[in-house]
Amino acid sequence: MVVAATARVTRDLDLAEDCTQDAFVRALGAWADGVPGNPTGWLTVTARRIALDRLRRETALRRRLPLLVEPGGGAEDEPEPADPLRLVFACCHPALARESQVALTLRLLCGVDTTAIAAVLLAGEAGVAARITRAKRKIASARIPFRIPDDDELPARLDAVLTVVHLLYTAGHVGSGPALTSTDLTGRAFGLARMLVRLLPDEPEPRALLGLLLLTEARAGARTDGGGELVLLDDQDRSGWDRRMIAEGLTLATAALRPGPDAGHGRFALQAAVAGLHAVAPSPERTDRALIVTIYDALMRVAPSPVVALNRAAARSRVPGADLAAVLTDLEALADDPALARYPYLPAARADVLSRLGRTGEAAVAYDAALELTANPVERRFLAGRREAARASTGSAGGSGPGR
After folding, report:
1. Residue 98 and residue 160: Cα distance in Å, rounded?
2. Which of 33, 208, 28, 187 shows the shortest CA–CA distance to 109?
């Protein structure tokens, strides 16, 4: 929020980020006797003052001063509610590659570190850092404005923004911290998704994205047990799911689905439909697995990706009477895709299917591979437990998939 508010008036991402960090350092001393009533406002004012001081020392002061005030208004002390959305749209400008859009937004809007961004993008840390640097330079050189685009510009930017918000939510689940989920990141994703629904009330995909987030988050309270250990979807106590979230999510997801066989559903509408089928099923046994696979087939046509292919294979493995050997063949084919080289859920899915086929020695090796790619301690404990169970097994099938 502070970076976004500062960037709105400086038009310089590096300067906004640096001055925000300096403002937090100053707060350590200034707040020694107590936090002010409006800490965000204090940080924003301080960051902007630091930026002005730096600019005054530059020889290009006359050239840059006109950029310090947004046309049509003053540099308010309070950050505006739409500041984060302005920053997202700036970071998602078509002049930037999709991976750069995602990396820059996660870094500037939420302060996500390079390691976590690399995990979301399934990329190397050095490459991610270079993308962020190049994207900042591109925004500065092209003088990309910090504003919500006009109506005629929105369609070209919307898909990128929706993708970034979804990956922001995902980033809240792939960190290396002690908890399974970062509520700060997931909360920011929800805030942006709701802003997009208000901004574009007639567009189905923003509603679908918000519905997907709600249907996924509704299970948050059941994803870990009393001891903080991971509980997979099929093993969760469904009475612990948030029914109010599910109701809102289903309403949004249903509204996002266009009627008719050739309706051309969007990718978030299809993903929300899958989440909705899980949410309404009273038990794992009564989940419509075949319909879920059909939806993944449609998703592969609309937005094919290696991750969607993996999720489709995992869904196929749960259909009653599934040909697990055929599923394993599909999973092994995905292992050759470089996009999944750092994705722990692929070897975890292989391990699950291998265990259910009775090939427990191979399953243990696959769990080892998943562990090497997993940073979160909760997930690591779960995978280690599954690995030890596979090692101890005498050939009996069992276990669940890597989903949660």
Report:
1. 7
2. 187
**CA 120 to the chain's CA centroid:** 7
**Residues 137 and 171 sit within 8 Å (Cβ to Cβ):** no
Distance CA 36, CA 79 (A): 16
Cα separation, 331 vs 316, whole angstroms: 11
- For residue 149, the SS3 value is coil
Rounded-to-integer distance, Cα 80 and Cα 76, Å: 8
User: Distances from the Cα of 99 to the Cαs of 64, 95, 96, 130, in angstroms?
Assistant: 30, 12, 8, 11
Distance from the first to the final alpha carbon of the chain: 30
Distance CA 362, CA 397 (A): 13
**Cβ neighbours of 354 (radius 10 Å):** 25
User: Can you tell me whether residue 206 is helix, strand or coil?
Assistant: helix
Instruction: Please report, in tens digits, the pLDDT of each residue of the chain (404 residues total).
Output: 677 677 766 666 667 777 787 777 777 777 877 888 888 888 888 887 777 776 665 544 444 444 444 444 444 455 566 778 888 888 888 888 888 988 988 888 878 888 888 888 888 899 999 999 998 888 888 888 777 787 777 877 899 999 999 988 988 876 655 666 677 888 989 999 999 999 888 899 999 999 999 999 999 999 999 999 999 999 999 999 999 999 999 999 999 987 654 557 899 999 999 999 999 999 999 999 999 999 999 999 999 999 999 999 999 999 999 999 999 999 999 999 999 999 999 999 999 999 999 999 999 999 999 999 998 899 999 999 999 999 998 554 444 444 44
d(CA 66, CA 62) in angstroms, rounded, equals 8
Token pair of 45 as six digits: 């004012």
Cα–Cα–Cα angle for 224, 166, 13, nearest 5°? Answer: 120
Give the long-range contacts of residues 162-165, CB within 8 A, separation 24 or more.
162/196, 162/205, 162/206, 162/209, 162/268, 163/98, 163/101, 163/102, 164/88, 164/91, 164/92, 164/101, 164/102, 164/105, 164/106, 165/88, 165/189, 165/192, 165/193, 165/196, 165/209
- Residue 34 falls in which region: left (phi positive, over 0), alpha (psi -120 to 50) or beta: left
